[in-house]
Amino acid sequence: MKTTGLTETQGEALLDLVVLGMYVDHNLASAEDVCVQRLLDTFQFSSDYERQQFSDAAFTRARRHTGSADAIRGYVTVLADSLPTREVRQTVCDVLDDLLTSDSKITTEESRLLLVVKQVFQL
To answer: Residue 63 contacts by C-beta under 8 Å, 6 or more apart in sequence?
Structure first.
C-alpha cells in the first residue's frame, strides 16, 4: 500500500474514505478490517493510543455519512478537497479499490461508491 508522502490531512481523508467503504454495504468483512489495519501500519504514530485515536476518529466521521447516496456523495466531495492532486487522488482511489475487493466480492453499494469517488475525483 503506497501511502508515503501523504500529509496528515490527506491520511485522514484516505482513512475516512476506506472506512466509508467498509460501511457502505452494511457488512463489515474481516478482510476489510485487515486492510484498514495494514493501512494504519503505513502511518507513523508515536503510540498505540495515538493510532487508536486516529482510527476511532475516522470511524466516527465516516459513519455519519452512510445514510444515503446524497450523504455519501457529499462526504466524498468534502474529502476530495483534502486531496489536491490527481496523483494523490489516484493513490487514494487505488487503496479504496483494494479494500473493496479484499473480500473477493463487490456489492452494488461498493460499486456505486467507487463510481462516485472516480466521478468526484475526476479520475
So the answer is: 19, 23
